[in-house]
Amino acid sequence: MKNYISLLLLSVTFCSNAQTADTTIIKALYKEALTENKGYEWLKELCETAPKRLSGSAGAVKAVDLVYKQLQSIQYGEVYKQDVMVPHWERGEKESAYIETGKTKTQISVCALGRSIGTAAEGLRATVIEVKDFDELEKLGEKVKGKIVFYNHPMNPEYYNTFHAYGEAVMYRWAGANRASKYGAVGVIVRSVTLAYDDFPHTGSMANYDSLPEIPACAVSTIGAKKLSEALKANPDLKVIYKASCKTLPDAPSHNVIAEIKGSMYPDEIITVGGHLDAWETGDGAHDDGTGVVQSMEVIRLFKALNIKPKRTIRCVAFMNEENGGKGGEKYAAECKAKNEKVIAALESDGGGSTPQGFSFKGDTAKAENIMKWKNLLLPWGI
Predict the structure, then answer these.
(1) Is 46 exposed, middle or buried, given 0-12, 13-18 or 19+ CB atoms closer than 10 A?
(2) Would the pTM of this model clear 0.70, i.e. be above it?
(3) Residue 122 designated active-site
(4) Which tops the pLDDT comparison, 86 or 29?
(5) Which of 115, 153, 375, 381 could serve as a FRET partner for 32 with CA atoms 20 to 30 Å apart?
(6) What ranges make up the beta strands (E) of 6-113?
(7) Radius of gyration of the chain, Cα coordinates, nearest whole angstrom
(8) How far is CA 138 from the centre of its chain?
(9) 323-349 per-position pLDDT tens digit
(10) Among the options 95, 322, 323, 348, which is catalytic?
(11) What pLDDT band is residue 19 in, cutting at 50, 70 and 90?
(12) 342-348 vs 239-243, strand pairing mode
């Protein structure tokens, strides 16, 4: 979980430059980061106090209050909450699904996708058509009308970069229901976007339907996907019974939590570091994205611990509602624009708490070349 060292070094380089950055400061940051465990303590407290913190929920309220207090405890700079209205979607009772072949029912593990509608109280019962990709769906067209579309698209294990494989597979979770609804499907089952072969379905957000009819959508575990695929090969006319009680409620008030150290020389130039505070309620949100939040908080704590006074303003933001809407990020950007603030850089940590190997960035050629000047400064530290 030492990924915040990337955030720290970027903050230091923005506060000086690649030619004059004090390597003594960087060494001190490394030592403090690797020998103190405050980030782990904060993360443990967050996941125990508010493990279920999807936007709009009671857990999200607890998470905001906790992180606000944690940042205040650093006693460095200003800490405040930024109001934001966020989506409020609730899963309801645990979902259930069965493969029905004649009089035999075989249970498979599923969970509703975020933003999905629920089924009728008695559940949804329909025949299933399996497709590997959108091309197969398009070829079937109206043949999926009245049926459940089963997207069985596994992540490609051949990629060294697992996010590449994730990006190829996650489109079926994101847009699968929308595309199937276009042809009259009554429901969607999506293979969980994971390389793990287990019985734990992965939720995640899905696209809006625009003017298309909304249909229930769920993820099935990778073991469940195999069971369903094999059962369909043996009996293409089988049915699946799916039941879910999820629903969308009116938007709810919430907050981004912000801590800010004013720059000593260029206070109007702002460096933002952050992670998202909300998390799906099927887990405790440690990797996604509790680590990103506490890594960003550590930037503030370590500057305080080492008595570093940055030349430019450093702002740590715990964003609300990344998982199913992005309203926290939109509100932060709108506020920056309304105040005509000059944000010279923003770095988000949302890649989990595993071993960091670097970071990516976007910008024009001149800015990219500027950042690449830091390469020799960062390489000795494994970034």
Answers:
(1) buried
(2) yes
(3) no
(4) 86
(5) 375
(6) 78-90, 96-101, 104-108, 110-112
(7) 23
(8) 29
(9) 999 999 999 999 999 999 999 989 999
(10) 322
(11) very low
(12) unpaired
